[in-house]
Design goal:
210 residues; alpha/beta; 6-stranded parallel sheet; globular; disordered N terminus
Length: 210
Amino acid sequence: MTTSEYRNGAVAKPRLIVGVTGASAPHLAIHLLTALRRLDAVETHLVISRAAHRTIELESGLRPEDVTALADVHHQRGDIAATIASGSFLTLGMVVVPCSMKTLAAVAHGYSDDLLTRAADVCLKERRRLVLVTRETPLSLVHLRNMAAVTEAGATVLPPVPAFYQRPTSIPDVLAHLSGKILDQFGIRHELFPRWAGAAAARHTEGAVR
């Protein structure tokens, strides 16, 4: 389903599925959901894994309910009858952020044992955009082979690698860049970070800062 099809009246607003797993750094999902709420460009459908509930509490200091409140629609991970479990429910696709190696393995091998992995499988079979923000380091050969498998199946592996050409000065700057890179994958307009405009522009900015 393309953006043009949405504009032609297929649905009122484009839908984006956001999956959150138990990998470290739930802050990645929290920042993305916050940015999407401010942009108000898509209807967000959120599903959080069992492990992510614990990671959110341990690492962010928030409650899982605080995170679900950021989404337009929250689906229970065990609800296989949810809308996002069906290919007939039109979406732009799905981002899993952060994506654990367990979830990566499940998606790579079509093992849909909960709503999150089922929704990801739907995106693959319907040829919709699936972005996996894989969070692990270092990577084993098993991890790399699973990344290759999902890429061959049509997904995009987007590790949360920070960029420094925009001269980040804070953790929010780094998070904003990553959220922006994810939104770029779905063609969602934003101004979360300054885009590279060439070396001359970078030198001019550096001079202004000094």
